[in-house]
Amino acid sequence: MRCTTTALLATLASTVSAQAGDWQQCGGMNWSGATICGGTAGCVKINDYYSQCQPGAAPTVPQPTPAPQPEPQQPQPSEVPSSGAPAGSGPGKTLQTGYYWIRAVAAPNFHKYMQTKPLYATGSALLGDYTTAGQFQIVDGQLVQLVSAPGEPAKLLYGVVSETRYINDNSLSVTFSETKNTYGKFAWQGDGLTWTVAGVTRPNASAWYVCTGQKLYINLGNYLYQTPAGCADQTIHYYNDKTANN
């Protein structure tokens, strides 16, 4: 019996010593001491670094402070990663049979031509100089770019429309990829390049934006209305002369 009583007293003493007294610290960031208050005191959080045993407060056990979480990233216009090597050597500066140049016909991008960056490789669609103009066609609703040299087997890249909206929440980025587009269809309206998709009503199916870095975006809104900063409204058209010109 004596041994049992002695062990019980030791256990009680240990329990008491593990409790913080009134007005003592009972928690906080990096705190390694007692976290339970004795008597009728409760552990009250003062700040992330200090909690205190306060008589009469509801007894609580301080919870560990969670690590700060990174803020979610806002979506940015998508890019198709380049492999670092051109997808093709390019069709040259003479228009190949069955293909078109595509260019703008209004300021500030008058006679700027559609192409990719990097040239003839997977990447963003943009309007650039006539000396590096790409050659394009529409096949079964796909906007295709010829990137192989004359006499080589035809190698194509496909214009891919992002389903994520950018800039003014009314713009879709266009990149070129080795895989076909699955969102919407391209078509010619007269000589203008259009894009449509089920479920999205566009006031002008041929409305485009040319924004920072000369990148092309499909404009889902009204043409020449509430144009976002850094962008210009544009329609783009095919051109079938043998050589591109400025």
Automatic annotation (TrEMBL):
Keyword Methyltransferase: no
Coiled coil, from the record: none
Residue intervals of the CBM1 domain: 18-54
Keyword Signal attributed: yes
Annotated segments matching region Disordered: 57-91
Molecular functions per Gene Ontology: cellulose binding
UniProt cross-references to InterPro entries, sorted A to Z: CBD, CBD_sf
Protein name, per record: CBM1 domain-containing protein
